[in-house]
Design goal:
The complex is a heterodimer of chains A (132) and B (456). Chain A has 132 residues and is an all-alpha fold. Chain A folds into 2 domains: 99 residues, Orthogonal Bundle (Helix Hairpins); 30 residues. Helix content of chain A is 77%, strand content 0%. Chain A has 4 helices and no strands. With 456 residues, chain B is mostly helical. Chain B has one domain. Chain B contains 20 helices and 2 strands. In chain B, strands 1-2 form a two-stranded antiparallel sheet. In chain B, α6 packs across α7, α15 runs antiparallel to α19 and α17 runs parallel beside α19. The chains are: A mainly alpha (132), B mainly alpha (456). At the A-B interface, α1, α2, α3 and α4 of A face α5 and α6 of B.
């Protein structure tokens, strides 16, 4: 059972990490979702006991660890919130850049740097000319 | 106990209300500033209590101890909490004086303060994660503040990378719970001593990765320059002066208290990564021509010192790391706020911050560097590295000073007097800490004692 959980969590994390490296922003979001699911699965798997549902009054048999379930629930809620935030962010980026390709966003950054670079080069020329 | 509850409830309740109001109105902005000031006051009262009477602890919801979530304030936690809320308050006042541009800004800063307080004042690992995510979520939205294409692009990178970091943290929390059977930090620290070293090392690596991403250490730094240069000055000050403290605090708390054995094992690796950070940040900062870019790379270099001090370890190393984190957070708050300002006082205040970054007396940075040298006195290689790093930082800060203030490359309207005096007040704090360092030194040693006691 441990092995099954470990394999499933590892596959989720691996797939998520792979998607995160994509250029397409929607895939990046999906990657984050998968990584968060992998964390939730690990939380569930980290429970110390297994057995009946931990509902009061407790049954005679062993109950499963309620703490890891509480943690997993919290993590799912937080994961949902950050995913929706990330989706909104991607939506705004898509609207602003009219593209969902991360390269175009990076290009903008590079252009900004190039503009600064050119401005400085020009000013240095001015200075050198003044010095002469 | 009351102060502990107030420090969490005030910003939480106020933040939820402020988030609904239109932050562009001056009144709402000043309301947020008042809340942050009240929050700071509660933390100062709490700090006084902790320093005179020792750790203050409480269990939430009247649960018996060991079942409910524990909140605890010790010297290390309150020190970072006070520092971060000071940085947040300064940045908020700066932005409100300038005129807030988006309705969510005041509410978000207050909610970020809640998250930071929670992170620094909790004694429960999973609670730490929840508050960590709360402050990060506020920060993701703050990173878009300004709303131009550059900020949006930067915020996207920031969010994606840091989400991965927090999920890696969560994976380590799951691992920690599985091997120790507890989420309480004090209990986990005791039980981790008997855990299979292989498992403990894996957990430690996860925590280290998560906090390094937050701090922007060398191999995890790639998101940082884009975000710090893309964001508005006040937001950059909040991120580097307030939020980045989570990274330093987390490394100290989880490394120094929970996993001291693993920390000692990784000592050399930490020193190497820290050194790489110092050199990389320093060299790239020299190649930059604008103050915000220089500061972004300088931030990468400066956290390298903190990591090296943690790697050296022991009481002296931890005290140096704590002191340097404090000084660095103040420097960065001061310098990021001066970006884009012009006026009679701005140049002088920039110089004070620059002296502090370079570690020249009488600024507080000198004390920080002195403690670092004291910590590293036994290894000549680290001493040489600190010297080289300091020389690099001296060059990059004053190079930018020349560009900005002698050649007059800063253009735009003059900043108003209220804003200039605010920056002057922060600069005077930096100066005062350098001239009268005893309280700060005593505080950082008290905080390091907490870790030394926990490590036994």
């Amino acid at each position: 059972m441990k092995l099954a959980f470990a394999l499933a969590a590892a596959t989720l994390f691996g797939t998520g990490a792979y998607l995160l490296l994509h250029r397409d922003l929607v895939r990046v979001v999906l990657g984050v979702v998968l990584v968060s699911q992998s964390a939730v699965l690990t939380l569930i798997a980290s429970g110390l006991t297994r057995g009946a549902a931990p509902i009061y009054p407790l049954s005679e048999r062993d109950v499963s660890d309620p703490l890891s379930q509480a943690m997993a629930l919290t993590a799912i809620v937080i994961g949902l919130a950050v995913t929706s935030l990330l989706l909104v962010l991607v939506l705004r980026v898509v609207q602003a850049f009219e593209s969902r390709d991360i390269d175009e966003v990076a290009e903008e950054e590079a252009e900004h740097d190039a503009v600064l670079e050119r401005r400085h080069a020009r000013e240095h020329e001015d200075e050198e000319a003044a010095a002469r | 106990m009351t102060a502990l509850a107030l420090a969490l409830v005030i910003p939480w309740a106020a933040g939820s209300v402020l988030a609904l109001l239109d932050g562009r109105r001056r009144l709402v902005g000043w309301l947020a500033v008042a809340v942050l000031a009240a929050n700071l006051a509660a933390l100062v009262v709490l700090a006084a209590q902790v320093l005179s009477e020792g750790q203050v602890a409480a269990t939430t919801g009247d649960w018996p101890a060991g079942v409910g979530i524990t909140l605890r304030a010790d010297a290390l936690g309150v020190l970072f909490a006070v520092l971060s809320s000071l940085a947040l308050l300064a940045a908020a006042v700066h932005e409100v004086l300038d005129g807030v541009r988006e309705r969510a800004f005041p509410g978000l800063v207050v909610l970020l303060a809640t998250g930071l307080n929670g992170v620094f004042l909790t004694g429960d690992v999973f609670d730490f994660y929840v508050f960590f995510e709360l402050s990060m979520t506020a920060a993701y939205i703050l990173a878009t503040y300004g709303g131009t294409r550059r900020e949006l692009g930067a915020a996207l990178v920031f969010t994606a990378v840091n989400l991965l970091g927090t999920f890696i943290f969560l994976l380590s929390v799951a691992g920690l719970y599985h091997v120790t059977g507890t989420l309480d930090m004090a209990q986990a620290a005791v039980r981790l001593a008997d855990v299979d070293p292989n498992a403990a090392i894996l957990i430690a690596v996860g925590f280290f990765g998560a906090f390094s991403v937050k701090l922007g250490l060398f191999p995890f730094h790639f998101w940082l320059p884009t975000v710090y240069t893309g964001a508005r000055p006040a937001v950059a000050a909040i991120l580097s002066g307030g939020l980045a403290n989570i990274g330093a605090y987390g490394l100290l708390r989880f490394g120094g208290e929970l996993l001291p054995g693993e920390l000692a094992l990784a000592s050399t690796a930490l020193i190497v990564i820290g050194s790489a950070s110092i050199l990389y940040g320093g060299v790239l900062a020299i190649s930059r021509r604008t103050s915000s870019e220089m500061l972004a790379y300088s931030a990468i270099g400066q956290v390298g010192y903190v990591l090296v001090a943690i790697g050296v370890g022991g009481h002296v190393g931890f005290a140096a790391a704590i002191l340097y984190s404090i000084v660095n957070a103040l420097n960065k708050t001061l310098l990021f706020l001066t970006v884009g300002m012009r006026g009679a006082l701005v140049g002088a205040m920039f110089v004070l911050g620059a002296l502090s970054v370079a570690g020249v007396p009488p600024a507080a940075g000198f004390i920080g560097k002195l403690e670092l040298f004291r910590a590293a006195v036994e290894s000549p290689a680290v001493l040489v590295l600190f010297l080289v790093g300091s020389a690099l930082s001296f060059v990059y800060v004053f190079q930018i000073y020349q560009f900005d203030f002698w050649r007059g490359e800063r253009s735009g309207p003059l900043s108003g007097w209220p804003q200039q005096s605010l920056v002057a007040v922060i600069a005077l704090v930096v100066l005062a800490m350098g001239l009268w360092p005893e309280p700060l030194l005593a505080l950082s040693h008290d905080a390091a004692d907490v870790l030394a006691r926990a490590a036994g």
